Amino acid sequence: MRRGNILAFMLAALLALSGCGAYPADPEGTLDRVRGGTLRVGASPNGDWVRIPAGSDTSPVRVEGIEANLVERFAQQLGAGVEWVVGTEQGLAEELKHGGLDLVIGGLDDKTPWVSHAGLTRPYAESKDQRGNLHKHVMLVPLGENAFLLELDKFLLEEKKQP
């Protein structure tokens, strides 16, 4: 290889590598904003996964259930408080898409129609419905917020390992 070609190759490689920042990244800074701050969570009632106790229609909203407990522990790990917003899946998915929420729960599975509005965690639990159909449960996060998604996925994986 000629000296000029080597220099050109090295320059191209240097330029390509200089564009590589921390990966994964959050273009909107979700993980950094939530850590030590507030995790804004949309909750859609769905059986044992997400329950809204009677009398919770006043502020602050109370949310209970399997996923609510997971979210509380995740927030605690991040040193964050939780701000709950109760609504329908559709309304919460829209709010997530437009930046008003950091996370949506509601017993959703990996076949959720909101995949165009949100990123999905890896399935972290399975259940069967009355017909015997298997459901792989996921949570929704803002599209592109990959550092936040990775942190949540790692948390859910560790929780899954717990007895």
Structure description:
The chain has 163 residues and is α/β, with parallel strands linked by helices. The protein has a single domain (24-161), classed as Periplasmic binding protein-like II (D-Maltodextrin-Binding Protein, domain 2), CATH 3.40.190.10. 36% of the residues lie in helices and 18% in strands. The protein contains five helices and seven strands; from the N terminus they run ααβαβαβββββα. It has helices at 3-18, 30-34, 66-77, 89-97, 146-161, and strands at 38-43, 81-86, 103-105, 118-120, 125-128, 134-137, 140-142. The strands form three sheets. It has a three-stranded parallel beta sheet, sandwiched between helices. Strand 1, helix 3 and strand 2 form a beta-alpha-beta unit. Residues 5-19 have low confidence and may be disordered.
